[in-house]
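Our consortium's second objective concerns turning raw sequence data into structural hypotheses that experimental partners can test. To show how far this objective has progressed, the report includes one record in full. It was chosen at random from the queue rather than selected for favorable results. The single chain below, 184 residues long, was entered without modification.
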Amino acid sequence: MTTPVCTSASNAAAPARQTLTYPSFASYMRDRQPVLLRTARSLTANPSDAEDLLQTALTKTYVAWDRIEDHRALDGYVRRALVNTRTSQWRKRKVDEYVCDELPEPEELPAGDPAEAQALHDAMWRAIMKLPARQRAMVVLRYYEDLSEAQTAQVLGVSIGTVKSAVSRALGKLREDPELEPVR
């Protein structure tokens, strides 16, 4: 057995080797979060991602808190959870961006003639006004007010099936309207 060269240094290091047991997860998190965050930051390039990674690892630790018998091993457990979570994220990542020299510009749609747009709008309303009142109400609620079939049925006090069949018949009539022929 060898004796330490500096006894005061070895005695000072002895309390540092003792690890604390934590009575609750909250106390553990409060004491160890800064150290664990540094570990998470070493695994990711983005500080926000590191915080998310630590939060995920701490969530896994919280779920397993009652199963962890030796609280002296908590840091190792959390570090392993950090590494495993980061590895899973890396494996699951999906590359949606591709490097290119020039940014593709969206093709501009030719601007329509405002007079034609207004003429189409007027023709559509004239065709809708030819529908029976009940079908007209259902078409307006479904397509102009953007209500679902269930919401339209509730507003009008009818069944969903009634809304479906009436809207189907109304759209059929609109498709056959001769005034809307140029649009098709």
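The partners drew two points from this record. The chain has a mean pLDDT of 81. The radius of gyration is 34 Å. Both points have been shared with the crystallography group to help prioritize constructs.
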